[in-house]
Design brief:
The complex is a heterodimer of chains A (about 475) and B (about 140). Chain A is about 30% helix and about 25% strand. With about 475 residues, chain A is of the alpha+beta class. In chain A, the strands form four sheets. In chain A, strands 7, 8, 9, 11, 15, 16, 18 and 19 form an eight-stranded mixed β-sheet that branches. The two termini of chain A are about 35 Å apart. Chain B is about 30% helix and about 40% strand. The chains are: A alpha+beta (about 475), B alpha+beta (about 140). Chains A and B meet through strand 4, helix 6, helix 8, helix 11 and helix 13 of A and helix 2 and strand 6 of B.
Chain lengths: ~475, ~140
């Protein structure tokens, strides 16, 4: 399979039709020569599998953080026409609207003093890890509003400012959420978890802005050198996990009903214009809206700790932006010179709308949207901006992180959590986690170097570097 | 009979076998518990549920997904599953103890059970399948 890959440009590679049976369009991925060694055959197969689905538009795509997942590869993007195309939970994942937000502060590194105390205070307030419940009790009626209105509910309840909404993808809400498509099981899981980080690769991180690449864009996004920022990475928790689980069987049956052959059962899908497809899309929107509330509450709780410690107001800690990287969205894109409505699946990929696109935050028409790329525990994260190149080539999409290269068990064998914690400590990075095992699984070596991954999307023109942030304090989920 | 972890970059891939289909389901449960609650080895708490359906892979997927649901909403750490196949599907008993962060915090949260690669086949080792846990 790997011998079929064709190099098209310095950073663009093609998986031609015929690589797996039934491909309707070629696959295309973005990777540098130096990262080609990290490419797994399983990921290429999964990229080719996307291209077998009905209504796939132009190319099945993968970003440079591509790696082997289930259904779509991680880093996979698939856009489908509304008339012939399908929607698949395998192109979204279990953690619907897993995403990242970045909050700025007026603080510098020297202001933090004993950062460990502040970090510990946040760690004690925000539930992290398996089996944790939120300090905020959500009533059943409130859950309905959370699922239909998204982040606006949180703002109206006092968990943030009106401004936060304008600096959030889609203003923290996907329209069309219908609570009647969400099971009682999903609701039961969702109610106690709103405002919890979860586990795995989720985190809350204190970061310092180390380098500015585009001063004009950085200024528009409210970022300056040496500033302390907070990055929050989490998703829709048990509510989203259950919705994905519920719809896998519904859509597996639908694929049989509509006679859609599946290269992988996790690609279970239904036509976008079918009752089953529409039901999943509206249930997925409920989970996406819940995830935005989740990140908003976590940011609010963080603001409260920083307010107490440094006498700051919420206005002095603005949201830089919030992006989702596990989602399917109805968007308009130019296809063969025509504005076309598509359903764009991004599984471990981030929207990167360029200048003059719809849904840009205030004052960003000439710049494009902010794009947040978390690094691994010991490596840099990046603030990028969307570009015209992304609109032309990738349906306005870019990478979502560094991308794993080691399995969790391999990572644990290489080094213990305690030794990683110590070595990061020597580099000035404090790590708090529920267990040493979590730290070992998320070791910096388990990921591709974030600098190299970001270099690919920058050089390929599908996003542009604005700022680099370095971690100084990490709360692992 | 057994389960063993196979290499998978993003998630946890298990190869699970059982002398009977019933045992295969129980072993798949044990594989899941080993990821979520590696330190849970005892249990005075029991959870029971039944599932209906005839298709083996789907039943296995629903059985493991149901474990995720109950572990979360009942706040329990689990270590053993007893499965009885019935004419209409299966009935299951799960054993464990109340979840305590200090004791069970080293576990890994499993977000979902993927259908990817799940195919129950008769082999020399009994009934076997791959099961992929999204973590």
């Amino acid at each position: 399979m790997m011998d079929k890959i064709i190099r098209k440009k310095e950073y663009e590679w093609e998986v031609p039709i015929g690589t797996v049976p039934g491909m309707r369009v070629p696959g295309r991925f973005y990777l540098s020569e130096e990262l080609m060694g990290t490419l797994e055959e399983g990921a290429v197969q999964q990229l080719a599998n996307i291209a077998t689905l009905p209504g796939i538009c132009k190319n099945a795509l993968a970003m440079p953080d591509i790696h082997w997942g289930y259904g779509f590869p991680i880093g996979g993007v698939g856009a489908f026409t509304m008339d012939e195309g399908v929607i698949s939970p395998g192109g979204v994942g279990f953690d619907i609207n897993c995403g990242v937000r970045l909050m700025a502060t007026p603080l510098k590194r020297s202001d933090l003093g004993q950062m460990k105390n502040v970090l510990q205070e946040i760690y004690d307030i925000i539930p992290t890890g398996v089996g944790t419940k939120s300090c905020i009790t959500v009533k059943d009626g409130e859950l309905n509003t959370i699922m239909t209105e998204g982040a606006r509910w949180a703002i109206e309840e006092g968990y943030g400012t009106e401004r936060d909404l304008f600096w959030c993808e889609g203003q923290g809400c996907i329209e069309g959420a219908d609570i009647s498509h969400v099971s009682q099981k999903a609701r039961k899981r969702g109610r106690p978890q709103c405002g919890t980080l979860g586990s795995g690769n989720h985190f809350l991180e204190f970061q310092c802005v180390e380098e500015i690449f585009e001063p004009e864009a950085a200024q528009a996004f409210g970022i300056e050198a040496d500033q302390i920022c907070i990055m929050i990475h989490c998703g829709s928790r048990g509510l989203g996990h259950q919705i994905c689980t519920d719809y896998l069987t519904t859509l597996e049956d639908a694929a049989k009903k509509y006679q859609i052959p599946l290269a992988d059962n996790q690609l279970a899908c239904a036509p976008l214009r079918s009752p089953e497809g529409e039901a999943y899309l509206s249930a997925m929107a409920c989970a996406a809206n819940y995830a935005w509330v989740n990140r908003q509450i976590i940011m609010h709780l963080t603001r409260e700790v920083l307010s107490r410690n440094f006498s700051l107001s919420a206005e002095e800690m603005p949201l830089v932006y919030d992006v989702t990287h596990n989602i399917a969205k109805i968007e308009e894109h130019m296809v063969d010179g025509k504005r076309t409505t598509l359903c764009v699946h991004r599984k471990g990929a981030t929207r990167a709308f360029g200048p003059n696109s719809r849904d840009l935050p205030p004052g960003c028409d000439a710049i494009g949207q902010p794009v947040i790329i978390p690094g691994s525990m010991g490596s840099s994260s990046y603030l990028l901006r969307g570009t015209h190149g992304a609109m032309d080539k990738t349906f306005g999409s870019t990478c979502h992180g560094a991308g794993r290269v080691l399995s969790r068990s391999q990572a644990k064998k290489r080094a213990s959590g305690e030794s990683i914690q110590e070595s990061l400590g020597r580099r000035g990075i404090i790590v708090l986690a529920p267990s040493a095992g979590t730290i070992a699984e998320e070791a910096p070596d388990a990921y591709k170097p974030s600098d190299q991954v970001v270099e690919v999307v920058h050089e390929a023109g599908i996003s542009a570097k604005v700022a680099r942030l370095y971690p100084i304090g990490v709360i692992k989920g | 009979m057994s389960f063993s972890e196979r290499e998978h970059t993003a998630d946890v891939l298990m190869h699970v076998c059982g002398a009977t289909k019933q045992e295969l389901y129980e072993e798949a449960g044990r594989a899941l518990f080993s990821v979520m609650f590696p330190l849970c080895t005892r249990g005075e708490v029991m959870i029971q549920f039944t599932l209906s359906g005839k298709e083996e892979e789907r039943l296995l997927h629903e059985f493991l997904s149901e474990i995720l649901f109950y572990a979360e909403v009942e706040c329990v750490a689990l270590y053993r599953a007893k499965v009885t196949l019935t004419p209409s599907g299966l009935s299951a008993e799960l054993f464990g103890e109340p979840y305590q962060r200090e004791r069970h915090g080293s576990g890994t949260e499993v977000k979902g059970i993927s259908l990817s690669g799940m195919e129950i086949k008769r082999t020399d080792d009994g009934w076997c399948t791959l099961v992929l846990f999204d973590v």
